C-alpha cells in the first residue's frame, strides 16, 4: 500500500518507518480515530456525523489531495512534514465515516453519534497534530510503536471496508461477518503482495531501463 | 358472512386490490406471504374475537348459534383458506393464550384439577382445546394487514431520488477521480442525515461506502501512474 521511497519516509532514530510520510499520516490518522472511538465507547456508533460536521470532515481531506496533485504535476515541492500532517487529516475522517457506516440503520433508529460536534472534532484534531509533532520533532516514540500503529490502521481500514460491504449487501451468516472480514483482509494482503512483485516491480524495472 | 366472497386484499408491494387467496400479485408479480404477516401480536391487537379476548366460552357459541352444523359448513366452504391459516396459527400456539381462561373454562379447569387431569394449569384437556378452537367460527375475523404504511411501501410509493439521479451520482463518484468522491461523500452525508426518507438514507450510506472504496482504488491507481513518470519517483 505504499511506494516506500526512502527520501519520502520518516526516520525514527536510524530506522525508516514502513510507510512513506503521507501513508504514515493516513494510517496513523485512522488509528488515532479508532483509539479515540474505543476510548469514548463509540466503536458501536450507528449515527453518521451531522451534515455540518460531516462536510467539515470531508474538507479536511482536501489539503492532502491538493498537496499530492500539485507535487504530482510538478507545480510545487512538498516535504515530509506537510505530507505527514495532510495525511493524518485525510485518514481521520475515513475512520469516522466507516465506523458508523457499518452499523447504520436506514429506519432512522440510530442513536449513538460517532462524533458529537465541533468540540469533539477539535479535540481529535489537536491529538493528531500533537502526535505528528512528537514524531517529527522528537525521537520520543519507539520505532515499533509508530510502525505497529500504522499497520493497525491499515489492517483496520481494510477489514472494516470488507465488513461494511458484507453488512450492506447482507451476505452470509450475520454471526460470521467478523470472520469473513478477516478473510477478506488476508486475501487483500495476499493480492497486494502478488501485485507488488508482479506489477510494481516490473514497473520499477522498466523505469530503471528508461533512466 | 355474506361479504366473505366480495372481500378484497391489498398487495403489500404495489397497493392494488387483489383476491384474498392470491399467492402472487397479478399486477406486480410479488409473492405474497400472508402467513408471516398474520403475527400473534397483530391478531391480538386487532381483536380476533368480539369480546376482545383471545378465547371464547362454550356458552357464547350456543347463544350465537355458531355451533350449528349448517352455519359451520357455510363458513368452511366460503373461507376455508383463511380458516386454515388461523388454525395453523392456533396449532403453533399463537392465537390464544392458554393461561387465560374465561369463567366457564375456569369451572372446567377446577373440576379437572379435582380429578387430577390438569396440573397447575400447565396441561389443558383435549376437550377444552376443542371448545376453544371453534372461536374462529366467530364472524369477526382478524383484519388483514395491508402494510400500506410500512416503510418499504412508503419508499416504493414515493421515491424521492429518481433512479436516473442515483445512476448519475454513482457515475460521478466512480469516474471523476478525487473530486467525484468528495462530492459523492458530501451528497451521501446530506442524504444520510435527511429525516423521514428511508430511500435517501439507504442510498446515502451506500454512496458513502462506495466513495471511500473508489477513492482508495483511485489513490492506488494514481500512485502507480506517478511511478511511470520518470521525473517523478511516486506521488
Q: Tags for this entry?
A:
heterodimer, A: 211 residues, mainly alpha, two-stranded antiparallel ribbon, globular, B: 235 residues, 2 domains, 11 helices, 2 strands, 2% strand, elongated
What report would you give on this structure?
The complex is a heterodimer of chains A (211) and B (235). Chain A is mainly α and 211 residues long. Chain A has one domain (6-210). Helix content of chain A is 68%, strand content 2%. Chain A has seven helices and two strands; from the N terminus they run E-E-H-H-H-H-H-H-H. Chain A has helices at 21-39, 51-59, 62-72, 80-103, 118-137, 143-169, 177-210; strands at residues 11-12, 15-16. Chain A has a two-stranded antiparallel sheet with strand order 1-2. In chain A, strand 1 and strand 2 form a beta hairpin. In chain A, helix 4 (80-103) packs parallel to helix 6 (143-169) and helix 6 (143-169) crosses helix 7 (177-210). Chain A is globular, with a radius of gyration of 18 Å. The two termini of chain A are 25 Å apart. The relative contact order of chain A is 0.15. A two-stranded antiparallel ribbon of chain B has the order 1-2. Chain B contains eleven helices and two strands, in the order ββααααααααααα. Mean pLDDT of chain B is 61; it is low at 1-5, 35-44, 46-80, 93-106 and 116-142. Chain B has helices at 34-37, 40-46, 58-64, 69-78, 80-91, 103-114, 126-132, 151-157, 163-175, 179-192, 198-228; strands at 9-10, 17-18. Chain B starts with 8 loop residues before the first strand and ends in a 7-residue tail after the last helix. In chain B, helix 9 (163-175) runs antiparallel to helix 10 (179-192) and helix 10 (179-192) packs antiparallel against helix 11 (198-228). Helices cover 53% and strands 2% of the residues of chain B. Chain B is mainly α. Chain B is elongated. Chain B has two domains: 39-137, no CATH class; 159-228, no CATH class. The chains are: A mainly alpha (211), B mainly alpha (235).
Amino acid at each position: 500500500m505504499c511506494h516506500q521511497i526512502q527520501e519520502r519516509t520518516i526516520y525514527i532514530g536510524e530506522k525508516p518507518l514502513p510507510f512513506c510520510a503521507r501513508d504514515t499520516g493516513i494510517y496513523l490518522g485512522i488509528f488515532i480515530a479508532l483509539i479515540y472511538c474505543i476510548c469514548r465507547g463509540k466503536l458501536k456508533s450507528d449515527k453518521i456525523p451531522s451534515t455540518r460536521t460531516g462536510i467539515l470532515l470531508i474538507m479536511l481531506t482536501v489539503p492532502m489531495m491538493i498537496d499530492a496533485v500539485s507535487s504530482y504535476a510538478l507545480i510545487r515541492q512538498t516535504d515530509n512534514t506537510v505530507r505527514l500532517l495532510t495525511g493524518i487529516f485525510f485518514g481521520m475522517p475515513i475512520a469516522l465515516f466507516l465506523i458508523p457506516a457499518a452499523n447504520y440503520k436506514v429506519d432512522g433508529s440510530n442513536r449513538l453519534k460517532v462524533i458529537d460536534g465541533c468540540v469533539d472534532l477539535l479535540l481529535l484534531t489537536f491529538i493528531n497534530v500533537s502526535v505528528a509533532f512528537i514524531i517529527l520533532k522528537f525521537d520520543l516514540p519507539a520505532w515499533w510503536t509508530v510502525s505497529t500503529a500504522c499497520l493497525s490502521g491499515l489492517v483496520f481500514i481494510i477489514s472494516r471496508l470488507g465488513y461494511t460491504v458484507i453488512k450492506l449487501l447482507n451476505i452470509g451468516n450475520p454471526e460470521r461477518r467478523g470472520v469473513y472480514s478477516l478473510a477478506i483482509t488476508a486475501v487483500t494482503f495476499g493480492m497486494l503482495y502478488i501485485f507488488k512483485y508482479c506489477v510494481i516491480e516490473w514497473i520499477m524495472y522498466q523505469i530503471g531501463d528508461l533512466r | 358472512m355474506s361479504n366473505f366472497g366480495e372481500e378484497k386484499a391489498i398487495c403489500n408491494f404495489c397497493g392494488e386490490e387483489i383476491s384474498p387467496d392470491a399467492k402472487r400479485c397479478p399486477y406486480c408479480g410479488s409473492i405474497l406471504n400472508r402467513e408471516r404477516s398474520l403475527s400473534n401480536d397483530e391478531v391480538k391487537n386487532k381483536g380476533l374475537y368480539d369480546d376482545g379476548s383471545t378465547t371464547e366460552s362454550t356458552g357464547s357459541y350456543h347463544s350465537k348459534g355458531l355451533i350449528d352444523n349448517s352455519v359451520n359448513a357455510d363458513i368452511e366452504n366460503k373461507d376455508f383458506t383463511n380458516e386454515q391459516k388461523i388454525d395453523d396459527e392456533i396449532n403453533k400456539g399463537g392465537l390464544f393464550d392458554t393461561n387465560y381462561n374465561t369463567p366457564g373454562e375456569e369451572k372446567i379447569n377446577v373440576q379437572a384439577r379435582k380429578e387430577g387431569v390438569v396440573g397447575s394449569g400447565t396441561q389443558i384437556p383435549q376437550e377444552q382445546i376443542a371448545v376453544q378452537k371453534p372461536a374462529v367460527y366467530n364472524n369477526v375475523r382478524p383484519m388483514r394487514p395491508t402494510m400500506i404504511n410500512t416503510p418499504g411501501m412508503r419508499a416504493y410509493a414515493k421515491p424521492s431520488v429518481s433512479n436516473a439521479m442515483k445512476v448519475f451520482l454513482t457515475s460521478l463518484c466512480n469516474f471523476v477521480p478525487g473530486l467525484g468522491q468528495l462530492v459523492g461523500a458530501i451528497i451521501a452525508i446530506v442524504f444520510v442525515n435527511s429525516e423521514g426518507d428511508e430511500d435517501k438514507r439507504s442510498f446515502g450510506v451506500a454512496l458513502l461506502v462506495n466513495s471511500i472504496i473508489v477513492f482508495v482504488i483511485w489513490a492506488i491507481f494514481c500512485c502507480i501512474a506517478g511511478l511511470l513518470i520518470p521525473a517523478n519517483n511516486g506521488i
